[in-house]
Design brief:
Elements: E1 7-17, E2 20-31, E3 35-39, H1 46-53, E4 61-66, E5 69-70, H2 76-81, E6 84-86, H3 99-109, H4 114-127, H5 143-154, E7 161-165, H6 173-188, E8 193-197, H7 201-207, E9 210-215, E10 218-223, H8 225-229, H9 232-238, H10 246-256
Parallel strand pairs: 3-8, 3-9, 6-7, 7-8
Antiparallel strand pairs: 1-2, 1-4, 4-5, 9-10
Bound molecules: adenosine-5'-triphosphate (ATP).
Adenosine-5'-triphosphate binds near residues 22 and 42.
């Protein structure tokens, strides 16, 4: 915990699905205003952990705490009102509605009047530099714009924490760079604590102050980017997996740093 305790924390959390241990005694903290990374091969348990932290998945054993208060068992929509927001691997936008309405609906769901929600939606789209998309039907958006709108929706009413589930998936290098700028501003300008789950290891090493590495439901490494670059345990976890391109990427990063 930081001295102020301004963190979203999973403490000793375990989750089981029909005998499969998806998470085993996992402890992870997301401090306000910082970017924390969560990496690990496919099936490591990353999404399950996001689900636990955002109320989409009940905690098996262990606790989840929001700035010192236990929040295990609180439903996802209530946690969102308490300031814990997320994005999904799939955008999950209302595909038949314009972009502006997608954000407005969230504002209304969070207790704003329609008028305030529309004003807030316009403010968020402008802040993200995507106000020209306001009238576009969400289902017609190119994939990367859909991702940006999903982030816009998640930062409606400025949450305290934002958990991003593979926001750069399918993005070009240039698009990932633009995304990196946005994520830095979300933490730096808005003071939001960001948890970034990504298979784009370069992005995680560039953005995150602290990185947690999950493998088969267990945290196998925690540290600053340099520690992760040089970790044999991390390299080993990715070897022989579908993401084994991470292994040479880590070696290059370690050589360059
Ligand atoms: N609802 C569920 N029911 C049963 N098993 C599940 C469920 N959700 C996840 N699992 C299993 O739990 C393990 C962890 O899955 P999870 O999706 O959290 O991993 P992940 O690290 O997010 O993977 P990816 O990188 O592929 O998204 C996997 O073995 C997965 O098959």
């Amino acid at each position: 915990m930081t001295s102020q305790g301004l963190e979203l924390v999973a403490r000793d959390v375990s989750v089981q699905f029909d005998g499969l241990k998806a998470l085993s005694n996992v402890t992870l903290a997301v401090p306000r205003g910082r970017i924390t990374g969560l990496i690990g091969p496919n099936g490591a348990g990353k999404t399950t952990l996001i689900n636990v932290l955002t109320g989409f998945q009940p905690v098996g054993t262990g606790t989840v705490e929001l700035e010192g208060a236990a929040i295990g068992g609180i439903a996802a929509h209530k946690l969102r009102r308490m300031g814990v927001a997320r994005t999904f691997q799939s955008g999950r936008l209302f595909r038949d509605l314009p972009v502006l309405d997608n954000l407005e609906v969230t504002g209304v769901g969070l207790g704003q009047s329609r008028r305030d929600a529309i004003a807030e939606a316009r403010r968020v789209l402008t802040w993200l530099g995507i106000s020209p998309l306001a009238a576009t039907i969400a289902g017609a958006l190119p994939y990367t714009d859909e991702r940006r709108v999903a982030i816009g929706r998640a930062i409606m009413c400025t949450p305290r924490y934002l958990l991003l589930d593979e926001p750069a998936a399918g993005m070009s290098e240039h698009e990932s760079h633009d995304l990196a700028v946005v994520i830095k501003r979300i933490a730096g300008e808005l003071g939001i604590g960001v948890l970034l789950i990504e298979h784009n290891i370069g992005l995680v090493l560039e953005l995150c102050e602290r990185i947690f590495v999950l493998d088969s439901g267990e945290i196998i490494e925690v540290g600053a980017p340099d520690q992760i670059r040089r970790s044999d345990a991390v390299r080993h976890a990715y070897m022989g997996t579908q993401q084994d391109e991470v292994v040479p990427a880590l070696a290059e990063e370690a050589a360059a740093s």
